[in-house]
Amino acid sequence: LMKPIIFNGQYFILEEAITGDFALVKTWKADRAGNAIFRKSARNFNLPMCKAAETTVVEVEEIVDIGAFAPEDIHIRQIYVHRLIKGEKYEKRIEPLSIRKEGDEEAKSAKPGDDVRERIIKRAALEFEDGMCVNLGMGIPLLASNFISPNMTVHLQSENGVLGLGPHPRQHEADADLINTGKETVTILPGASFFSSDESFAMIRGGHVDLTMLRAMQVSKYGMRGAMDVVSSAKTKVVVTMEHSAKGNAHKIMENCTLPLTGKQCVNRIITEKAVFDVDKKKGLTLIELWEGLTVDDTQKSTGCDFAVSPKLMPMQQIAN
Predict the structure, then answer these.
(1) What is the Cα Rg of the chain in Å?
(2) Which PANTHER family does UniProt cross-reference here (predicted)?
(3) Is 88 one of the catalytic residues?
(4) What pTM, to 2 d.p., does this model score?
(5) Answer CATH for 116-315 from 3.40.50.150, 3.40.1080.10, 3.40.1550.10, 3.40.50.920
(6) Which of left, alpha, beta for 133 (phi over 0: left; psi -120 to 50: alpha)?
(7) Is the pLDDT confidence value at 103 over 90?
(8) Counting beta carbons within 10 angstroms of the beta carbon of residue 238, is it exposed (0 to 12), middle (13 to 18) or buried (19 or more)?
């Protein structure tokens, strides 16, 4: 077994880098020397794959003459490329096509439990602050971005390599090369930028993201079962948004998670349809907001651990439409 190494009080496992005999990469264009470029958000992990492989085979939509690219615009340098293949009859599939219609409120759907989801969404939206860089998980966290005030600037970051996400596109704006982590079609705002996934995780692990909002399968004061990299920095506020209980009323907020942890003592706040809890690494959970009509006893019965009650306990807040 590999032994953990401690850096600044955090445990890490040191492993050998992943390498491969071949890397098969799809790009937009390449010149005849092998220099290649991607289009919009299509970089993902393609760049580090090229660097980690003995032989890199690049499939392109178009091969251009040497010198067609400005040197500063090249994404994959020729030194990493061993074979070029020009593909034919490309079909760029969009999965799923997520579009915005005039007058739509994207946070609303016709699915069962819609009221519960909307309640969580409208509370989660109050976590945004002007100037924040925010990473949002799929589902409820992403829908909360629809309630960001037009008077507030929030920079949304996506792990696949976008900083400056905008709303879903209208039908005519949909672009297979402009997607978020969940492969949903998106738009970008003025000032946005594209990069590869390894740089995206450098932003996250380096603590440059102010807020991560995500779902989880289980949460306790000791950690959570859900995502891994996005909760890795102690500098980033981590907010879990989820339904209070699983199917069959099984507990999701627990004394100890029964599923393996993906983040240790990383959660700062939990938002459900019933309550809002602050989480302290030593003291545990404190109930700070409660949905109107529920009692502390009601919440305790549906929660799998004890919690303190804030002396400033207030009704669960909701952002205005």
Answers:
(1) 22
(2) KETOACID-COENZYME A TRANSFERASE, SUCCINYL-COA:3-KETOACID COENZYME A TRANSFERASE 1, MITOCHONDRIAL
(3) no
(4) 0.88
(5) 3.40.1080.10
(6) beta
(7) no
(8) buried
